[in-house]
């Protein structure tokens, strides 16, 4: 069925705003990263509220000061970071499902907790599909991030959601923990006992050297690990360099790497890490296979 397209106009944005869905699957053998939403839990929540397909594309926003205008009535939803939100200049207290009227303007203010906000729309944003995904990735899609005056297509919603008896409310409690659950990585056994205890027992802070490819931790973990051949890597792998730097690979990470892979974070733990700001602290904790399965199941 053909639907009429409308446009949302970006009025203001900081760096890093992009369109993301669940990413590109099965492309690693061609050197193509998975990409997709850094906080998958937030994306799935939004699409559930809007009764979209779970892979419908959303906006990922990582800076305050974003604003957008919608050409036609529709319904949107927000999740991820807790932020100050205004619609047509009026503060919104519980920005779950938000009805948008003709030429409605949404403004995103201060981030009160979390590092990434997700904005979804009924039927999803309709950017170009490249290799099975709408997710932005530099060198693959025409844009790597959105800029002022960019226009994003979406389907006109002739019956926007105006009222719900139930008031769904997004909770940020799940990502406020400092504890990051992890599996031992393929090269964890190469660490000596002292290094393992430091890796698992000591706190680490998020450094400013972080982006969608990876997140670097400030504290060093001295080690004498050998040089390794290039091996497959994917989001969630924690690599340890010869200089002692710990790097958590994220959604736009390369698909191969030569640094030892000492830990692996599952999807829920990746989402927690994605919501951490520079300077915030975390601690790794090893988990059993049974506990990890329960955590994965809790995402959906």
List keywords for this structure.
300 residues, 34% strand, Cyclophilin-like_dom_sf, Cyclophilin, PxpC, mainly beta, Biotin-dependent carboxyltransferase family protein, hydrolase, ATP-binding, 7-stranded mixed β-barrel, 4 helices
What does this structure look like?
The protein folds into two domains: 5-157, no CATH class; 177-299, Cyclophilin, CATH 2.40.100.10. Helices cover 13% and strands 34% of the residues. It has helices at 40-49, 193-201, 267-274, 289-299, and strands at 5-12, 18-20, 58-61, 66-70, 74-87, 90-91, 97-100, 105-121, 151-155, 179-184, 204-210, 214-217, 231-232, 237-240, 246-249, 256-257, 261-264, 281-286. Strands 1, 2, 3, 4, 5, 6, 7, 8 and 9 form a nine-stranded antiparallel sheet that branches. The protein has a seven-stranded mixed β-barrel with strand order 10-17-14-15-12-11-18. Strands 13-16 form a two-stranded antiparallel sheet.
Element order: H for helix, E for strand? EEHEEEEEEEEHEEEEEEEHEH
Number of strands: 18
Fraction of helical residues: 10-25%
How many domains? The number is 2
Mean pLDDT comes to 91
Number of helices, counting only DSSP H or I runs of 4 residues or more: 4
**Rg:** 20 Å
Distance between the amino and carboxyl termini: 29 Å
Major sheet summary line: 9 strands, antiparallel
What is the structural class?
mainly beta
**What is the approximate shape?**
elongated
How much of the residues is beta strand, in percent? 25-35%
pLDDT below 50 for ≥5 consecutive residues: which ranges? none
